[in-house]
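[SOLVED] Need 3D model of a two-part complex

Original post:
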Amino acid sequence: MKLEKVTSPHLHGRSDTGHVMRLVILATLPGLVALTWFFGWGVFINLLWAWIVALGFETLVVKIRKRPLGYYINDYSALVTATLLGLALPPLAPWWLTVVGVGFAIVIAKHLYGGLGSNPFNPAAVGYVVLLISFPAEMSSWVPARGIEAAVTPGFIDSLSSIFPVFGNLLGQPNVDIITQATPLDLFKQKQGLTTAEIWQPGSAFGHFAGVGWEWVNLGFLVGGIFLLQRRIIYWHIPVSMLGTLLLMSLIFWGGSGSESNGSPMFHLFSGATMLCAFFIATDPVTAATSTRGRLMYGAGIGLIIYVIRVWGNYPDAVAFAVLLMNFCAPLIDQYVQPRTYGHSQGQNKGHKQNKSKNSTSDQSDDS
Amino acid sequence: MSRKLFSFPGGIHPPENKLQSLSIPIQAVPLPSKLILPLQQHIGAPAKTIISAGESVKKGQCLAEAQGFVSAAVHAPTSGTVVEIADHEIPHASGLTGLCIILQPDQKDQWIERQGIADIRNIEPTELVNIIRQSGIAGMGGAGFPTSVKLSPPADANIKTLIINAVECEPYITSDDVLMRERAAGVIQGVLILTHILQNQQSLVAIEDNKPDAIAAMQEALAQLNEPHNIEIVVIPTRYPSGGEKQLIQNLTGIEVPAGKPPLHVGIVVQNTATTYAIHRAIEHGEPLISRIVTLTGNALKQPGNYEALLGTPIEHLLEQAQLDQHQLSRLIMGGPMMGFALESANAPVVKTTNCLLAANREEYPEPEPANPCIRCGACAEVCPASLLPQQLFWFSMGGELDKAEQYNLADCIECGACSYVCPSHIPLVQYYRATKGELAKRNADLKQSDHARDRFEFRELRLAQEKAAKDAKRKARADASAKAQAAKKAAAELEAKNNPEGSGQSEGKGDSAASDSDIVKAALARVEAKKKAQAEAAASQTATNESTSQPETQDRS
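Solution:
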């Protein structure tokens, strides 16, 4: 009789990293549908292309690192990175933009730091920032959302040809003319002394309370986020503190509807990548703070930085910057928010008080 | 029962799997061909044998008595012959062997003379504690802490609350459940004895709400009690690890036991149900602890259930009663699936802490999956009942950062396994914590030893330096004295020369011999004087150095 020698606990719950990651991807579906509806098939094509590129790079690096491939691919983390980056790219981003962004995210931001779990920075955010700084023109040319006057939402073939010109050549449509426009956040920032009412014209890029289309996209990601919360894949602390801080900041610095307006709270909550960030990017546990209080501080920091850069900074949106800056702070936050352990009084167990254990050992030897 | 319950942080809801072993009542077990009785079935010093091989013993006879305060006696579970006292496999997490008394039953099952106490109310508590100690009772919930120690609080301790831990929160285990269903009155009697010993204000019997039959039986037994009592049955929500001693105290009273202190520190004593029942048997029937109820369960058994087994029964024999399918058995766990340990073989015996034997097959407990990297999801921190940061402790364990692990209170981890249970990356977290705790213990022991060695070395250096200084001072004093003597001699000679200027030419004749004689006497007297003076000075300086050397010694003695 050969008996197994395994230490306790012998039971294991059903949770599994691959399962968690698959659910995250699934939860982006409402947002993806909204994006595709308002900005055309390019969004969808980008996403598929990002997946292919991510799997390619993941396979390549895992092979180079001489690790078991199936084990790494099965955690689905590369696909999550690709999904988040793919959703953030402009709908007609040329194919090489995706390759550069996803490649940088997977190879440099993730694997060079040791792979999943060891990366200090959110790979998708790193990829996005690299693209934004290196290729600002490509990164800010969005097609106008469906519903805006004179907006022509590109069809599947047009989108495909414009992302991959090689298909355009094959299909005899070498040059597709696509109208591009700045995003509502950009337009609002560049309103040049106009009042909110003046730019908020029917048929303009502004809809009910935020950008046309963007309202729905953000609502879609909000729905997906609530699904993740309900499945306990993510915890509420980061989204709530991030959105709460953004809400608070935009209330304090709203400035009414005049030409000095910084945008209403609703505008900030439902514009750009706010909801995608709150539920999908900021909640990446690897790069976030870990304790409950730490998560609250981390989320609040992201909300604060997003608002500061959007309103007083140089960029219309700042999700990736905010996430990366707070990634820097996460270890520091973790250091200072150690929860109170059972049977210890508050402040008795600070991990950052380096000399505590040394003192206590010398105390003991004195006592004896 | 509208007692206000508090709560404890974290916890999980693993599948309970308790029904399998609840279909049949408590079963008796036929006598095995031999009984193996380890001398250490408890925390503390092993018992000391008082019989020798070849002796015939009766059922209930003491074979080995408690040695020291924290220890427990071992008794013969049936009558028979002591075959030998030798090393034998014992149920141990690392598969160690231990000294055991091997007893061959004579099938007569002949008791020693038993004397129960009918009315405990006139008996001194210390006498009852003594009987409990003589009966070899140790915590039967799994820890095996000698019960008499817990019942001997210091004189100034004010015990407010007695908690009977009938929670049984581990999956699969039902031994306390059936004990309460079938022998509730005995358990209640045990509580009364404990209350008499501790003189506590309230006695709370805590049961998880997934045991409605046990709750009903206990309430029934309590209702039938026709004497004043302070016992209350408290139903608590099912959530693992609500039966952890610290968690149970927090759940019932809202009090946290300070780290590193026993519950006694906050006026609470916790006893397990089976232990309480054993106390009742020992006091009121005069029966020492020689048997216990063991849950036999798992998919490798065809007849799972609860069996009343004599201590020392080989586990193999017990599993046969539950119709073990040898080919199915892949993992044999003593205790529950969350905190129990895997046995290396079924040759080990049932001991006082064997509440459950889980004979699992491969489908039920597949081999552990390879661990993925930690993604710091924090699920572990959410379920930790001690509010630790398990993922941080994991990093510190991996990196060998012992100081950090200590600062993050690794010592407060109760190894309940909730963190490992929820970990999506299948990391065997508790295994890391155990290893790091071991390293920490070793490091701290080493540290203590090296501190001690350093202290000794430093004192030796000091002592040598002082001895050297004393020696030097002595030498200097001696040198001074001789120099002074020399000087005195010289002075005397000069004086002589001055007094006797023509004496330089001694060869010139001895005409003035009387005068020169008196001069010689004078010089000699002066020499003696000088020598005396020098000696006195040397003595004075020596006492001074003696004082300086003796000073650290007196300091050391204080």
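Edit: Residues 84 and 353 of chain A are 38 Å apart (CA to CA).
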